[in-house]
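Appendix C reproduces, verbatim, an entry submitted by the partner laboratory led by Prof. M.T., so that reviewers can inspect both the input and the predicted structure.
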Amino acid sequence: MFNDIGALELVVLVVLAVLIFGPDKLPKVIQDISGFIRKIRDFSENAKQDIRSELGPEFKDFEFEDLNPKTFIRKQLTENEDLKELRSSFDLKKEINDVADAVNGREADASVPAAVNGHGGTDLLKKGDRPGQGERPPFDADAT
């Protein structure tokens, strides 16, 4: 619950609590706050149990944490066999490097599509027309 509070922040909160409530009332305030948090937790657990009992036995493994989109996606990616196969066949780093090589004019692999390699569609620069060091490429009004 308090995973993101550092030591300095905790010290500041304690000093503020002592200044606001005073050392006399602070134990009573802490006791009231902890009782309130306990009541909220009990209410939450009772609501979860009611929902599980209303859903029926087919949802006995239902976890409310699965409703979080990040948790749901992570669970689907790790448990779904089709997605595991697709994920293992796709190498994103290799694809990005191939596209970067094609854009920079280096020799690209055959796995990059022809249009990305510059061999498909219309080329502004042909192989022999590459600008030299310090030269500017020709201006294309349609591309800007």
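The chain has a mean pLDDT of 77. Additional entries are available on request from the coordinating office.
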